[in-house]
Structures are given as structure tokens and as C-alpha cells.
Amino acid sequence: MGLEQKGDFVWEIPREGKMRVPARLYVDKGMVEELQREEQTNWSTLRQLKNIASLPGIQAPALALADCHPGYGAPIGSVAAMDLKEGVISFGCIGFDINCGLRTLATQLKKADVERKKKELAEELFRHIPAGLGVTGQLKLNESEIDEVLVKGAEFSIGKGYGLKEDLEFIEMNGKAEGAEPENVSLKAKQRQFKEVGTLGSGNHYLEVQFVEKIFDEGAAKAFGLFEGQILASIHCGSRALGHQIGSDYLVELKKASEKYNLELADPELVSAPIESEEGKKYFSAVNAGMNCAFANRQVLAHLTRESFAKVFGLAENEIRTFYEVGHNTAKIEEHKIEGKGKKLLVQRKGSTRGFGPGRKEVPEKYRAFGQPILVGGTMGTASYILAGTEKGMMETFGSGVHGAGRKMSRNAAIKSFNGEKITGDLNKKGIIIKTHSMKGVSEEAPQAYKDIDEVIEIMDATGISKKVARLRPMITVKG
Predict the structure, then answer these.
(1) Which of 282, 336, 343, 430 has the most CB atoms around it within 10 Å of its CB?
(2) From CA 290, how far away is CA 297, in angstroms rounded?
(3) Is 328 among the catalytic positions?
(4) Which are the contacts of 69, defined by CB distance < 8 A and separation ≥ 6?
(5) Contact 404, 378 (CB under 8 A)
(6) Distance separating alpha carbons of residues 118 and 427, to the nearest angstrom
(7) H helical segments located in 365-432
(8) Is-cis flag, bond preceding 182, omega within 30?
């Protein structure tokens, strides 16, 4: 494929064929070589990115960030921004796990404090956090209460006694997506969620106790309230079965819409609807409902995590603050500059996270001078990062950043290649406790199945799209 190098870590596929805009990738030469080898397989990031660039109403350019890899229809680690009048909303550009994201809690505990009680904390978290396939949570809801969840988001959970009102200031969108219409979510989707609010789930979802290993930007770290040796806890999960069912339901609806409006799609997996069509509005409202489900879910899990820390260390609940929460499978109407002029766009991020720069009103006032915190999950054996959004990121990537390391191996291949018991034992020798309900899940999420997180972060920092603030190392990981 005709990739052209535009900078040390910037490559573009020029507009060709049915592409409406160019496609841009933030990757290094080694990643380019891997992407080119991948072209010979059934799933190709480059082909999928070209297909996104061919969607009606897309604004230049279609983007893939350093953690990109193939997904259903569109690459994970991609960004597609659409003109509201001419553009489409596409299932492939959002994904099944709507608003899968990260909540990070900050404590004043230090690494040595946790080392003394690490096994006790690991056991308490494993006992107290509902995790695993098909697990149920403390909240048992009916249909009318689920409708409340889909409208109120994190506010619903706080109203039920899970968490603090001050948490909301430090959640993306303050924990509630406007425009959610529960009537556009099927009864089947709602029924699947009756007992799942406040559950971690399985797959790549986790709760991790981490310490701040290194500070890169002292000014931003001070504003963020971070210091070396500090203990944080990060929760990675999304909208659970409800979000997946919304995806399954609307794949059918969007296929019909694609045919009804004669949309020219390069890949049938990119089924879409015009944003302003009846079908587009219905799907967008259902996505907002799924986002609120995820916000409510993480809010409950954050509260349970607080309870575990409080029990083991004798802390008050308000001594464990919400540092930040941000999602990475989303569709949001945002204002960005196109050719120097402000314009409202529908920004669809799949496996990429919002990363707004300094001064944006959407960023909590406490952090605003340094840009939005970007939470980047690594693997249970390597590292995670906290970055900050930049003005350059606003101009080039619609204020978007990476969300993780990015897979380099499929789940099936990982299961065949790695033994969960061995991985757990090896990490334990390194001082990392893994508590899991499924050794198969550990194999799927083996650190070796992912790209080098440090390499991914260096690319985004070197390009100026995001800036490094802190590197975190895992101490305890709880998985489904």
C-alpha cells in the first residue's frame, strides 16, 4: 500500500480510489513493516483505515494511533470525525463494548505501605469485586431502574450510595452522556444488564493496583496530584452485556439503513446511517445510553475498590479520590477546528481516547492548564501511563490519544501460545500478584500478546500529540 512518510513517526496513505480523505498513522518503521506484512492476512489495519477514509462526510484525515490493530470493520486505535450534515455514524467505528474505559483512583499511600499488606489487599479486592463471565453485582435492578441508569449514568450509582458527588467533576462528560433515549435500547439488552451493574466482567477488563514509578513532567504531575511511589488503582471495563447487545441489535438496523440510503461502503462491516437520519439518531441515542451504563458500572466498582482499601488500611472514603475517568469506545459531538474554523463534528473513537489539550472547558478546572489526563492501560506485567493532551493533538487528531499497548497477537493465538499458570507464577516472582477467575483469560491477556507499551508511548510523546506525565507499574491485578 502506498504509504508516504511525513515525519519521524507520521505516515500517510494518500487519497486514492474511493477514499474521500487521506489516512494518517502515528507509528514507527518497525510498526509499518508489521502493518505491511499484516496486509497479506484477512484482517488488515491499513485496508480498514482506507475503508474508514471512504465513509461519507469524514473529515481529513482518517486516523490510526500507535496502538492500532485490526478490529471489526475499523481498526482499534482509530479516530473518524464526521460532518454532522453529510456524515454517517458507523457501528464499526465505535465497537461492541460501548464506552469501555478507565477509572483511576488516587491515594496518599506509598508503595511501601501496600507491600506490607499486598496479599491481604489482593484477597480483599478479589473477594469484594464481582468479576468473571456472567457474574452478578450487588445492584439488582428492574426495567424502570435500568432506564434510569441509561439516562443518569454515574449519578444513578451515586444516588444509590456508591461513591461521592465530587467524583463527577473528574469523569469525562461528568459521568453522563446527554441525549440517551432508553426506548431505543431493546428489552433484551436491558434484561442482560439487570444484575450486571457494578461488575468487572472478563476478557481484557481488570482492576489493577499500581505505583507511580516515574514522573516525566513535574508541573503536570503536581497539578494532577501525582508523586513518585504513590499508590493508584485503575479499573478497566465498559457497558457489559448491555453494550454488546446494543451493538448486535443495531448491526441489523444499520445494515437496513445502509441499503435504504444507498450508502457506498467499502466494507459491509462498516454498516452506517446518516447522522441526521431517523436511524442515525436512534443509534446515537442508544450509544449514549450504553455510555451511561458504563459510567454507572465503573462508579459502583470504584466505590467497592474504595471500600476494600478502607478496610485494609483504615482509610476514610474521601481519602481515596477519583483522579480521572475516560472512555475509549465512544461517539461524541465535539467542536474542533477545520481549516482554522470551529466546527461541530461527531467524533467516533474506537480503542482511542479523548485527550483534549490545555484550556478546553471540558477538562476539570484543576487540570485545565496542563491538558486532560489520558489514561493508558498497559499489560499486567509491564506498565501503564498517564499522559496529558496537547494543543498539537487538538489540531491533528481531534484531541485524541492512545488507550493502551495494542494487541500484536489474537486472543486465540495467545491461548495456544501461553500458559496462564506459568504467566501467573512468573509475574508473582516479579512481585506482581495476579488474582483471576480464569487461567484461560490470563493466557489471552499475556503481556507477550501486546505491543511494547513504552514504544507506543514514546511515539505519541515524540510527535507531540500527547505528553508523558507518569509511568505506573502493577502490583496487584484482579481479572475475571
Answers:
(1) 282
(2) 11
(3) no
(4) 45, 75, 76, 77, 406, 407, 408, 451
(5) yes
(6) 14
(7) 391-397, 411-417, 420-429
(8) no
* Cα–Cα distance for residue pair 428/434, rounded to 1 Å: 7
Using CA atoms, how far apart are residues 472 and 226, in angstroms rounded to an integer? 11
Q: How far apart are CA 210 and CA 234, in angstroms?
A: 8
Side-chain half-sphere of 372: how many Cα atoms within 13 Å?
A: 29
Give me the amino acid identity at 110: K
**What is the total residue count of the chain?**
480
What's the pLDDT score for residue 1?
67
Beta 62-69 vs 329-338: how paired, if at all? Answer: unpaired
Phi and psi at residue 43, to the nearest 5°: -105, 125
DSSP 118-173: HHHHHHHHHHHS--STT---S----HHHHHHHHHHTHHHHHHTTSS-GGGGGGBGG
What residues in the chain have per-residue pLDDT under 70? 1
Give me the residue label for grid cell 489471552.
444
- Of 69, 303, 403, 437, the catalytic one is 403
User: C-alpha distances in angstroms, 98 versus 119, 295, 311?
Assistant: 33, 10, 32
Give the pTM.
0.97
